[in-house]
Amino acid sequence: MNENKRTIIYGAVAVVLLIIAIFSSPGRITPEAFMDQGEVFFPDFTDPNKAATLEVVGYDQSTGTPRAFKVTFKGSAWTIPSHHDYPADARDRLARTAAGVIGIKKDEFRTNNVSDHEACGVIDPLDETAGISGRGQRITISGQSDEILADVIIGTPIEMRPNYRYVRIPGSNRVYAAEVDMELSTRFQDWIDTDLLRLRKSDIDRVVLRDYSVNERTLSIDDRDNLVLTRQPGRWAANRMSAGQSVDSTAIDELLSSLEGLTIVGVRPKPQGLSANLKVAGDQKELTQEDFVSLRNKGFYLSNDGRLLSNEGELQVMTNYGVNYTLRFGEVVYGSGLAVSAGGEDGSRRGDEVEGENRYLFITADYDPGYLQEPPKPTDTSYLFKEERRWDATDRANKLTKDRHDFWVNAVARGPQAAAELSNRFADWYYVISSDSYDKIHLKRSDLVANR
């Protein structure tokens, strides 16, 4: 092949490659399109503290519907309106999201062709005319007077560009590549305090598993078993164990870990009167018919002698600072999505082919002043004025006695306050836990006590 032919072929290939590159990349770019490149999207939004409402709208391709999640500043706290104004405790996520929106820049202009929006994943999730694919996540931040501080659609990640996504402003055709440094989520669990019980397994002294059922008509109780587990030096013991039995150390550790890490998947508000009774000790009002209906619908009952019962038994946890938790297990919660997390209308129903099996949970906490008995004080504290290497056996014994007494003093001071805070935290809500969490903490004697 002579040089002229080779040159012609190379030139033709170059032209073809150029045409392919032009038509395969998003849009046709003109010099004028680069004029705002490098500018921030929202130059007037510089203070994240001005944000009063944050809404993230995604798109559920399985149902073909938008999925919105909003947090708003109400009174003196951030709450989640779609979930009965449950506290949005994930303040770090709120701050990161607001700061991330403030920092978004128009790093690179990519296209202004509407036909490219699907490929870039920047179709508005609220667009009722577009197809299912190519939808982005829309973030809207508003101020105290409902003024829009920021409104942006975040599209798909850009290959070979870590943390870069396609970004578009609603109502504009222009698409940019922008560095997006924030986590986007419409999951209820991502916006709340996941440390539900605020409990450490090392603080647990005793666990009581009450296995019973309730006759819903007569409110009589069928007591099947009462397993009492107590922490002993280096081991756990259980009531009514035979000589050849012991508490399974692995099983009890897994139970304690499950309690420490217990999380929720949904919430329902309690009637106002019922919540008030749980918050104010000693001055309780008579429960209304609404209260009784609310309890029964969730699988909870008041016995004839005033005890709160549950149709799947209960679990009690006593801490070494005198706080007693009671977890009562109620009815199954069917469905998925908002049907579980807030009681919405999506998801399956009882009798559908696909059902969720989450569970209602009623939690209370109180302080037992009689649980913590004052230990002896040390008879001699002269060891405090000696170097530790000069302590004798009596000094070391007195040090141990003082440590135990100091622990008791701190526990007595800590317990009532912790119980009051927990009681107020739990009073307003029925919780929903996953079936997996339920299976890990709703145990029987045979799950924890084994033959040696």
| DSSP strand content | 25-35%
Morphology call: globular
Largest sheet: 9 strands, antiparallel
Mean pLDDT over all positions: 86
| Number of helical segments with 4 or more residues | 10
| Beta strand count | 21
Please mark out the parts with pLDDT under 50 across 5 or more consecutive residues, or reply none.
346-355
Helix content: 25-40%
Number of individual domains: 2
- Radius of gyration, in angstroms, nearest whole number: 31 Å
Which structural category do the helix and sheet elements fall into?
alpha+beta
Distance between the termini: 88 Å
Order of strands, widest sheet: 4-3-2-1-6-7-8-9-5
Structure description:
The chain is α+β, with helices and mostly antiparallel strands. The chain folds into two domains: 26-191, no CATH class; 201-451, no CATH class. The protein is built from ten helices and 21 strands. It has helices spanning 3-24, 91-102, 117-120, 249-260, 272-279, 289-298, 338-341, 393-427, 435-441, 445-448; strands at residues 53-60, 65-74, 77-80, 86-87, 108-111, 137-142, 148-157, 164-168, 175-179, 204-214, 221-232, 235-238, 245-247, 266-269, 300-302, 308-310, 314-319, 323-333, 358-367, 429-433, 449-451. The strands form four sheets. A nine-stranded antiparallel sheet has the order 4-3-2-1-6-7-8-9-5. Strand 8 (164-168) and strand 9 (175-179) form a beta hairpin. Helix 5 runs antiparallel to helix 8 (393-427). The protein is globular.
Task: Give the tags.
452 residues; alpha+beta; 2 domains; 9-stranded antiparallel β-sheet; 8-stranded antiparallel β-sheet; 10 helices; globular
